[in-house]
Amino acid sequence: MPQEPGQASPHAGGSPRDTPHTTFFGPKTLAVVAFVAGVLVALLLAGSGIFVPAGTAAASPGISPTACGEKIVQYINANQITPGNTASLVGVRENHGVYSVDITYSSENVTVYASGDCGLLFTDAINMSAPLPGSSGSASPAAASKSARPEVDLYVMSFCPYGTQAETAMKPVADLLGSDADFHVRYISSVTGSTPASVQSLHGPAEVQEDLRQVCINQQYPAQYWVYLERFDEQCYPLAGNSAALSACRQNLTTSLGMDDGAITSCAAGNASVGTLASDEAAADAAGAQGSPTLVINGVTYNGARTPEAYKEAICNSFTAPPAACNTTLASDTAPAAGGCR
């Protein structure tokens, strides 16, 4: 889905998280396949796995992440996609001296990579120090940690498509077990001060604003928080690429739920909500939650299917004495692709 264009990553200005980056895609539309295929053809023609934008001099060392991202999107729009279509910049991150550039094309998310001088463009990157999923050397799933009242922490970015899918899957579980376990949605961002301007998130300022609004809604209207998330993800998130439509959708949604939108907006502009994001950042660092979504139950990271029933089973297995509600069967439809935003 379209994302609000952003300029900074959650860790801009600091040390990048030393973790493998997952290139994320939504449904495999023909348009996106054609786009990626076009970039791959350029790579093959270059014969070396990389290509230098034709007619473009290498950028000077120290080019800013935003300038590099804009340069890449300009090049892609001019050379790699069919007329009438447009790629848009979402955000840029620096890791190991390489820029990870997140863009949207045909309502889908695509990540490409550039050298530090922004002179070379790549379609994929592999962290060779990271264990391969499912490899014989990877650790076995951690055993559940049991408690009388499990702590359930779902780490997300509010504009990450995989995060919104996880929220949708978790809502019926929270509805079922909310009186028996403590559910927390925590937001992945980087906070360097006490004001909203000091917060950075992968999908830009619009995502920061929504994170802060959701924090305030949870504080002011806790009984309606999951309802808001469900409806925002269904009705407003698809409008993320249109700031005016997104703003109107937010206001209409809060009004329809009987919430004071002015109070929410005022709260989101305050220091207290920023403090909550800072606490979430500290919790994410402690839990090793670096991608959206990450589910942690009683301090143990969950790596199973993302369906209501699978989530319920994992949480119920974390009770010392499971409540009767655990006997309820929830939906177990095919889970969405196991991707994430980092």
Automatic annotation (TrEMBL):
Primary location group: secreted
A Pfam family matched in the record: VSR_TRX
GO cellular component annotations of the record: extracellular region
Protein location: Secreted
Superkingdom as given in the UniProt entry: Archaea
Gene Ontology MF annotations: oxidoreductase activity, acting on a sulfur group of donors, disulfide as acceptor
Region ranges (Disordered): 1-21
Residues passing through the membrane, by range: 30-52
Alphabetical UniProt keywords: Glycoprotein, Membrane, Secreted, Signal, Transmembrane, Transmembrane helix
Domain Vacuolar sorting receptor thioredoxin-like: 201-316
InterPro entries listed in its UniProt record: Interferon-induced_GILT (IPR004911), Thioredoxin-like_sf (IPR036249), VSR_TRX (IPR056858)
Gene3D superfamilies associated with the record: Glutaredoxin
PANTHER family: GAMMA-INTERFERON INDUCIBLE LYSOSOMAL THIOL REDUCTASE GILT, GAMMA-INTERFERON-INDUCIBLE LYSOSOMAL THIOL REDUCTASE
Record-given protein name: Vacuolar sorting receptor thioredoxin-like domain-containing protein
